[in-house]
Write a structure and sequence with these properties.
Layout: H1 7-24, H2 26-50, E1 54-60, E2 66-71, H3 77-102, H4 106-123, H5 127-146, H6 149-166, H7 169-180, H8 187-195, H9 199-222
Antiparallel strand pairs: 1-2
Helix pairs in contact: 1-2, 1-6, 2-3, 3-6, 3-8, 3-9, 4-5, 7-9, 8-9
Length: about 220
C-alpha cells in the first residue's frame, strides 16, 4: 500500500503534469513559448554584460523568435558565453527557482523575475517585445502582491516546472531545424564558426545541460 501524498506533494505533481501538458500540446506551447524566449534572450543579455560586452538591444517577435545584440570582440570566451547562454538559460533559471522554492522564497523568485524583465525592458527595441515584457511583468507583480500564499506556491511550482520542461523542447526543435534547413543560421552554427567545433556538438551540449537540469530539478521537487 502506498503512502498518501501530502498537500505539498500533490501540488508539485499536479503543477508538473500541467506544465508537461503545456509543453507537449502544440497549441498551448505556441502561446506559452514566448516566456521561454524571454528567458532565452535574457540569458544572452546577462552573459553579454557579465563578459564585458556592451548590450545594444533586444527584440522579441510574435513568432516567438528573438534576437539580442551586443558589441565586443567577435571571438573569444566572452562571445562564446554570450551565444551559448541562450538555450541553456530557461533550464538553469528553472533549476535556480527550485532552489528558491526549497527555501520557501516564492516571493523572492517572483520579484527577481520582475527585476529581470524591467532590465530587459530598458533594452527592448520593438513594440511587441515591450508589450510581452509588460504583460509578463504585470502578471508577476499581481501574483506577488495580491495572490494568496497557496496561489503563489502553485504559480511558483508551475513556472519552475515549465522552465525545466520547456527548456528541453527548443533544443529538440533546434536539432530538427538544422537537419531540415542546414543553411539556416542558429546559435549552434554561430558557436561552430567561433570555436571551430561542430555545431552538432553544441546541440548535444545544450541537450545534456537542459536534460541534466530537468533531472536534477525534478528529483529535488519530487523528493
Amino acid at each position: 500500500m502506498t503512502d498518501k501524498l501530502d498537500p505539498s506533494s500533490t501540488l508539485v505533481v499536479v503543477t508538473g503534469v500541467c506544465a508537461m501538458v503545456v509543453v507537449v500540446q502544440q497549441a498551448a506551447w505556441r502561446l506559452a513559448r514566448g516566456v521561454v524566449t524571454i528567458v532565452h534572450e535574457g540569458g544572452h543579455a546577462v552573459a553579454a554584460l557579465m563578459s564585458g560586452r556592451r548590450l545594444t538591444g533586444i527584440r522579441l517577435h510574435s513568432d516567438t523568435s528573438g534576437v539580442t545584440l551586443s558589441i565586443g570582440k567577435p571571438t573569444g570566451p566572452g562571445m562564446v558565453a554570450t551565444v551559448a547562454a541562450g538555450y541553456v538559460s530557461p533550464s538553469l533559471v528553472g533549476l535556480a527557482g527550485v532552489g528558491l522554492l526549497a527555501m520557501d522564497q516564492v516571493t523572492v523568485m517572483l520579484w527577481a523575475g520582475t527585476a529581470l524583465l524591467l532590465g530587459m525592458l530598458l533594452m527592448i527595441r520593438n513594440l511587441y517585445g515591450a508589450l510581452s515584457l509588460l504583460v509578463t511583468g504585470a502578471a508577476l507583480v499581481a501574483i506577488s502582491l495580491y495572490a494568496s500564499a497557496e496561489l503563489q506556491a502553485a504559480f511558483g511550482y508551475g513556472i519552475v516546472w515549465f522552465l525545466l520542461l520547456g527548456g528541453v523542447r527548443p533544443v529538440g526543435e533546434l536539432y530538427v531545424t538544422r537537419r531540415r534547413l542546414p543553411g539556416r543560421r542558429t546559435d549552434a552554427d554561430q558557436l561552430a564558426r567561433i570555436t571551430h567545433l561542430p555545431a552538432t556538438m553544441w546541440v548535444l551540449l545544450f541537450a545534456l545541460t537542459t536534460l541534466g537540469a530537468l533531472a536534477a530539478g525534478g528529483w529535488l521537487l519530487l523528493t
